[in-house]
Every structure is written in C-alpha cells, then in structure tokens.
C-alpha cells in the first residue's frame, strides 16, 4: 500500500537524521566529550539540512496519499500507482540535495574567529552562524528564503490536502461515516503538527527572544522526542498493527 511505502521511507529518513545527531549528543552528555571537528560539524549540518528537507516533503506526499484515499476512493488504486509513488519518493529524497550541498559548502568557506564554541547540542545552522567573522546579512536572508521554501511548500500541500479531506468528510451525512476518515488521518495530522510547530519556532524565528536553553529544549523536541513518538502514534492508530499484535500475544 502507498501509505506503508511512504512510511518506510519516512522511517529511513528519520533514522538517518537522528543518527547524525543523537550519538554525538549522547557522547557530549554522558562522556563529557564536548569537542567536534570542523569537518564533522560541517558533515552533521549537511545531514541535518538534507534529511529535514526530505522529511518535510514526505509529510506532504503522505497527506496527498490520504487525500486521494478519502476524497477519491474508487480511483485510489489507479491514481496512487507504483510509478507515481516512486516518483514522489524520489522527488522527496532529492528535494534536500541542492540546499544540503550548496549551503554548508558556502557556509564553511567563510572565516571563523575566536573560540569556536557552539552553544547547542549539535551543529545547527544558526548557533554556528554566530561564530562567523564575516558579514552574514546576505547569508541570513538566503537561509530565511530557503527555510520558507522548505517548510512552507510542504506545509501548504499538507494544509490544502486536509482542507479538501475535511470538506469531503463533512459531506458524509452520518456521524459514524465521518468518524472513520478523521480517525484515519488523526495520526498523520498529529505528527505533522508536532514537527512543524517545534521546527518552525526555531528556524522561522531565529532572532526571537528565546533563551538559548529554551531553543535547545524546543530543538530537542523535534530531533529526539517527536521521532520517538512517531512509531507509537502510527502503531496505536493502526488497526492492522493492533490486530497483529493481539494475534502475537494470544499465541
């Protein structure tokens, strides 16, 4: 099914994204090893940009899948065919490549000065940006434009898809008939809301009056906590998973 096909790719994206952050974070917290090389920091930032962008576009692909399933159920099998799913998946994976390759390369070619102490638990773009000696006005503007494109295009697709879903569901006369489509989309909508609300606070308002500890806490929520909740949310909302789990426990 396309839903599970997108879920597998989303899971792979999240695994790669968190593997670029969590192991080093645990070494910092548990072993007090608070040093990261210049190359490792650049590589970590590259992975963060790449996989966050991919994740955003996978959210929109899954929302489009749910829209077709609910609004056009009789055409679902022909519309969401294998070729379309493969193209959407490749598009989501490749969406982050231009930004991930260009921005860190340009970013780490600029001069750094003083003691390069990153006030964060990973090499995020704005904490590292404060270490530059050069004028960063143009770079900050380009970052903001890139973040708006990366966040707003997928978010707009998600919003449009769910507005169409809500409109289609409200046409169903019986409340019982309305409950099932809403239940189908509830898990995806909850995860999307958690991801965009936390990531948007940090990256769309980089100069907001939040303390550094508050920014670290919010960053922790979308880099660690949300991925931990995703398998639980999707599993508990999935009837097939619950039936298989019950079958395994009964055996």
Please describe what this structure looks like:
The protein has 251 residues and is mostly helical. Helices cover 78% and strands 0% of the residues. α1 runs antiparallel to α3 (38-71) and α3 runs parallel beside α8 (137-170). It is globular, with a radius of gyration of 20 Å.
Report the sheet-strand fraction.
under 5%
Main sheet properties? none
Reading the helices and strands in chain order gives HHHHHHHHHHH
Mean pLDDT: 81
Number of helices: 11
The residue fraction in helices comes out at over 70%
Topology, please?
Blueprint: H1 2-19, H2 22-31, H3 38-71, H4 76-79, H5 82-95, H6 97-107, H7 125-129, H8 137-170, H9 175-203, H10 212-236, H11 239-250
Name its key features:
11 helices; single chain; 251 residues
Compact summary:
With 251 residues, this protein is mainly α.
């Amino acid at each position: 099914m396309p839903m599970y096909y997108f879920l597998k790719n989303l899971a792979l994206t999240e695994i790669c994204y968190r593997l670029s952050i969590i192991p080093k974070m645990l070494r910092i917290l548990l072993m007090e090893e608070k040093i990261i090389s210049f190359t490792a920091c650049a590589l970590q930032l590259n992975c963060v940009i790449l996989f966050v962008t991919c994740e955003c576009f996978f959210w929109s692909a899954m929302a489009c899948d749910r829209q077709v399933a609910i609004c056009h159920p009789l055409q679902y099998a022909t519309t969401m065919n294998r070729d379309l799913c493969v193209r959407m998946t490749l598009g989501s994976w490749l969406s982050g490549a231009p930004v991930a390759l260009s921005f860190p390369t340009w970013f780490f070619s600029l001069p750094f000065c003083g003691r390069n102490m990153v006030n964060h638990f990973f090499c995020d773009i704005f904490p590292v940006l404060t270490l530059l000696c050069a004028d960063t006005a143009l770079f900050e503007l380009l970052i903001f434009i890139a973040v708006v494109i990366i966040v707003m295009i997928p978010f707009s697709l998600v919003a449009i898809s769910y507005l169409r879903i809500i409109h289609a569901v409200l046409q169903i006369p019986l409340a019982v008939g309305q409950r099932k489509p809403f239940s189908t989309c509830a898990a995806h909508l909850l995860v999307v809301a958690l991801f965009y609300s936390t990531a948007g606070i940090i990256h769309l308002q980089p100069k907001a009056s939040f303390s550094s500890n508050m920014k670290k806490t919010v960053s922790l929520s979308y880099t660690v906590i949300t991925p931990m909740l995703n398998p639980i949310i999707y599993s508990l909302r999935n009837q097939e998973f619950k039936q298989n789990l019950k079958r395994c426990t009964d055996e």
